Amino acid sequence: MNLEIENIRLINPYTDTDSIVNIIIHNGIIQQIGPDVKLPKLSDKINGEGLVISPGLIDIHVHLREPGYEYKETIKTGTDSAANGGFTAVVCMPNTNPDIDNIEVINYIKEKARGLAVDVLISAAITQKRKGQELTDMNELHQHGVVLFTDDGAPVDRADIMSFAFEYAKEKDLILSQHCEESSLTSNFVMNESVVSQKLGLPGYPNIAEEITLFRDVKLAEHHGNRRYHAQHLSTAGAVEIIRNAKSKGLRVTCEVTPHHFILEDTNLESLSSDYKMNPPLRRGNDIQKIIEGIKDGTIDCIATDHAPHSIEEKSRELHKTPNGIIGLETALGLSMTFLVHKGLISINDLIKLMSVNPRNILNLEPINFEIGDKINATIFDPNDVWTVNKDLFRSKSRNTPFNNYKLKGKPKYILNNNKLVKCEL
Predict the structure, then answer these.
(1) How would DSSP label each residue in 141-197?
(2) What is the pLDDT at residue 43?
(3) What is the C-alpha separation between 396 and 330, in angstroms, rounded?
(4) Which of 99, 115, 276, 280 could form a disulfide with 235 if both were Cys (CB 3.0 to 4.6 A apart)?
């Protein structure tokens, strides 16, 4: 990839940079960068007027479904979807078939991801087959490249098993991550437990079911010597407060939220559309308010999508039989720009921290500095481009989104990574 980029706004929170620059790239390497760089008039050129270039976005929570569920998504279609949404890296979740709990599956994923424009980082299960009974060999899996451990798709219900996991994680300072759900309180749930679930006669998932597991895990992390812990897709006001209190005590606790949990409410389920059915479920207005407060004050570390593709047939079943989850890679940047930045809640620089810098820091990945000699790893987006979501343009294999036809402001344009330039077409 030989490319010149002219008059683009470089925002890089790693180096506190926010300035207009020209960039020359040769074979995927930054050759020159700065406001006074003279461009050689290459045939491949991007006019950066009105555009922003940032460190490549990373989604720390993605279900690529392969191996085992290729009819929903594959590593190729999932990373194509990520690229189209402006992401240069994703962390794939372990609820595949077979589960990501052994070296053979890890090597399979690495081979499938070889040569792609989007980096595929791997999370592996905390327990064997994600059954919550026996620990995996996390140290060995870490040696083969696993960046995070979670039974996502299911919680580690037993406190003793999670305690053993924190003790095991000490040697390599591994990061444990949890889908926070006390499943004894959520049996057969369809939606959030509230006046809406009562009105619709649907089984509910109470806020406390998320908060009990989160509180337990934070206490276990503290008990075992301040271990690293990352809470996934928080959805309640109480959960945000637990994280805030943990951080005030100096605990090494981080968390993520999804766009659907700071935009949508459980009242959307009154439509009985399965595209509003997810786990954790959509909550109430107070929960959304507290999540946004947590984003603004830094309690919440990153925005992730929990990209969860399902087939049209699966999502067309009766509501109580349809699987939980929605896709999110191709709408995340636009939704976050529209509902956070353009509402004046946070700055573009803050959003880049939430979608690039912070998740990379959580995973102990190298910073992206945009220095001469560095491999380019970047997202280019137009912060003011107004567009309408059309799910038929998605590169994901699935179409289960509640955001079709939403009018958004802020649109991904290109990713540059692994010596490749990919144009986003939404």
Answers:
(1) HHHTT--EE--TTS----HHHHHHHHHHHTTTTPEEEE----GGG-TT--EESSHHH
(2) 79
(3) 8
(4) 280
Dihedral sign from CA coordinates of 175, 176, 179, 180: negative
The string of pLDDT tens digits covering residues 44-63 is 999 999 999 999 999 999 99
CA distance 360 to 370: 15
Does residue 389 sit in helix, strand or coil? coil
Considering only CA atoms, which of 37, 64, 86 is closest in space to residue 408? Answer: 86
> What positions carry a catalytic annotation?
306
Q: Are 130 and 99 in contact (CB under 8 A)?
A: yes
pLDDT value for 354? 98
Which one, of 210, 282, 219, lies nearest residue 246 by Cα?
A: 219
Contact predicate 231/217, CB 8 Å: yes
CB burial string 220-257: b at 16+ within 10 A, e below: bbbebeebbbbbbbbbbbbbbebbbebbeeebbbbbbb
C-alpha span between 417 and 54 (Å, rounded):
12
Three-state DSSP at 89 gives: strand
Tokens of 80: 């194509």
Packing angle, helices 285-297 and 237-248, rounded to 10: 30
Instruction: Give the count of beta carbons closer than 10 Å to the beta carbon of residue 116.
Output: 19
Judging by beta carbons within 10 Å of its beta carbon (0-12, 13-18, 19+), is residue 75 exposed, middle or buried? buried
| Single pTM value for the model | 0.97
Domains contained in the chain, CATH given: 3-53+371-385+404-423 (2.30.40.10), 56-362 (3.20.20.140)
The pLDDT tens digits for 369-406 are 999 999 999 999 999 999 999 999 999 999 999 999 99
Q: Say how far apart CA 342 and CA 333 lie, in whole Å.
A: 12
Looking at the predicted structure, is the pLDDT value of residue 417 above 90?
yes
Q: Please tell me the predicted confidence (pLDDT) of residue 14.
A: 95
CA distance 78 to 426: 15
- Identify the CA nearest to 30 among candidates 373, 378, 379: 373
Q: Mean pLDDT across the chain, nearest whole number?
A: 97
Read off φ and ψ for residue 316, nearest 5 degrees: -100, 0
Amino acid at 336: S
Q: Collect contacts of 295-299 with beta carbons under 8 A, ≥24 apart.
A: 295/257, 295/262, 295/340, 295/345, 295/346, 295/354, 296/345, 296/346, 297/244, 299/240, 299/243, 299/244, 299/247, 299/255
What pLDDT is attached to residue 89?
98
d(CA 412, CA 45): 17
